[in-house]
Amino acid sequence: MENSRRDFIKKAALSTAGITFGGLATGMSAKSYAKVIGANERLNVAIAGLGRRLGAYYDPIGRKDSNVELVYLCDVMKKQREAGLQKFSKHIDYKPKLENDIRKVIADKNVDVLINATPDHWHAPGTWLAAQGGKHVYVEKPCSQNPREGEILVEIQKKYGKVIQMGNQQRSAAESIDIINQIHNGAIGTPYKAVAFYSAQRGEVPVPKAAPVPDGLDWDLFQGPAPRTPYMHDTWDYNWHWYGWNYGTAESGNNATHELDVARWALQVDYPEFVTVEAAKRHFLEDGWSMYDTMDATFRFPGNKIIKWDGKSRNGYKTYGTDRGTVIYGSTGSVYVDRDGYKLFNRDGKMIKDSKSSGSEAGTALGGGGDMTTRHVVNFFNAIRGKEKQNSPIDEGAKSTLLCHLANIAYRTNKPLEIDTKNGHIRDREAMKLWGRTYEKGWEPPV
């Protein structure tokens, strides 16, 4: 269907009276002519979820060399759709359609790509529905709300052959790619341990209370695959992250996803053998935050390799000098890497190389975007066209996200977990009950 549509556009363009290959056109506006050029590679893009990550897509979609057209802005909140259109109008010179229901967007055969920036509980369901509908998908982190959904996405990608990329944008940062390649080529000897960290200053959140559904919000569609519950203030706007496990994945899925991905990438490990966690709510004990806000997790891998996660959501003390990043230890040296670049040290602790990023991307600030995200999204576009190797295939994204889920399950069961290193499954029946989730009737995942 994609090829037939593009072939039709191309043939129609070539047969239009007045067009010459010298770049002159009569009877056709310059704007219309520009839309014809490269139409066989143009990607029609829809964005679902127009909240805090929306700004990350202005540049990769608005730049001419991306050769994409934004055809839909989709969100379950009316004011988000209207605000999204107004904000994007500064970056594109045409108007995309506004839509409430992601299913209608997916049903449109004119759409090639879905950017899935919905809340966590929609990430995997929205992605598998889109892949089944013939779309390529860029899905924000975490790619799943539970471990089984990650497995489903890998299976769906293999079945439908679509490009699915998770928004772990540091995989496309030039400095990160550089230092990871150096590590793999022996720059610090044998890497054996990585410490991933995050320190933020999140404040109090409201205690959720029964409230009318906000004007313009389709609460039923917001819940989507999640079991139905009455609306509670202030759930829909970001605080769903902290109000239980129906929609969010706690700070592990929200932020550890990034740094644990870098750690796993550096150490070249897949599934751990053991997971242990110490986590609790340590701050603002009477507020509405219902899960841990502080976590120390240890993942032990085959080959005596270790990844540690030091997550402090509401304590801004910069233990490692910055608010987020990864320290990788090796037999002959160490590396500090974050979104600003990296520092390479010898075994004596002397810095022997310092590479600073020429761009910038937010650390602990909410939302936004930046050079890394632009490169990551453009890499996704070009991978669809077969022009670049995909920087983050979904099977890699799913493995990193699984570490977040395992940490959450260890916290929720208050148990250390023994893991099957062949597939990441937990060798504990009680803990494996949290491998999947209960879905609202009619929203069950594909078998």
Q: What does this protein look like?
A:
The chain has 13 helices and 17 strands. With 447 residues, it is α/β, with parallel strands linked by helices. The chain folds into two domains: 2-170, 3-Layer(aba) Sandwich (Rossmann fold), CATH 3.40.50; 172-363 and 395-432, Dihydrodipicolinate Reductase, domain 2 (2-Layer Sandwich). The strands form three sheets. Strands 16-15-14-13-7-12-11-10-17 form a nine-stranded mixed sheet. A six-stranded parallel sheet has the order 3-2-1-4-5-6, sandwiched between helices. Strands 8-9 form a two-stranded antiparallel ribbon. Residues 1-37 have low confidence and may be disordered. Helix 7 (147-160) packs antiparallel against helix 12 and helix 10 (250-267) packs across helix 12 (394-413). Helix content is 32%, strand content 20%. This is Secreted protein. InterPro entries: Gfo/Idh/MocA-like_OxRdtase_N, Gfo/Idh/MocA_oxidrdct_glycsds, Gfo/Idh/MocA_OxRdtase_bact_C, NAD(P)-bd_dom_sf, TAT_signal, TAT_signal_bac_arc. Residues 210-320 form the Gfo/Idh/MocA-like oxidoreductase bacterial type C-terminal domain. Residues 43-167 form the Gfo/Idh/MocA-like oxidoreductase N-terminal domain. One of its GO terms (molecular function) is nucleotide binding.
